Amino acid sequence: MESCECKCTKECVFVPYLPLNKPEKYASLSKVFKMSKMARLLKDIEPNQRQVYVDSICFEAEARLRDPVWGCVGIIRDLKLQLEILKRELKKKRMALEEIQRSIILRARF
């Protein structure tokens, strides 16, 4: 496994989860994680959860390569900020809608 640092070979334990036509996935993993450890962890995971594990560590590796300081935490931080902005915007829209509804009700009474 350690001799295979740049691409996943047919003997690699990741082959069922990383297509051979996507060598960049394996390359990302091997740049960020020690592949022998990732392979040991993969073997300890239930077979029906292995694809999720590989997808997750691929996402983490790619995030770390894009942003070496923050990695996934940066993505989570950005999404939380975006969510807060959208919540505030939704609150404003709901308040505006309530105001419109009140004015419609008032007009209907006269």
Question: What descriptors fit this protein?
Answer:
LOB domain-containing protein 36; 110 residues; single chain; mainly alpha; developmental protein; nucleus; 4 helices; coiled coil; LOB; 2 domains
In short:
This is LOB domain-containing protein 36. By secondary structure, the chain is mainly alpha-helical. The chain has two domains: about 70 residues, no CATH class; about 40 residues.
Question: What report would you give on this structure?
Answer:
The protein folds into two domains: 1-66, no CATH class; 72-110. The chain is 69% helix and 0% strand. The protein has four helices and no strands. Belongs to the LOB domain-containing protein family. It is found in: Nucleus.
Q: What structural category arises from helix and sheet content?
A: mainly alpha
Strand content: under 5%
Annotation, overall tally of beta strands:
0
Tally the structural domains: 2
Biggest sheet overview: none
Mean of pLDDT: 90
Q: What is the share of helical residues? A: 55-70%
- Topology pattern, helix = H, strand = E: HHHH
Shape: elongated
Radius of gyration: 24 Å
Poorly predicted runs of 5 or more residues: 1-5
In DSSP terms (H or I, runs of 4 or more residues), the helix count works out at 4
N/C terminus separation: 81 Å
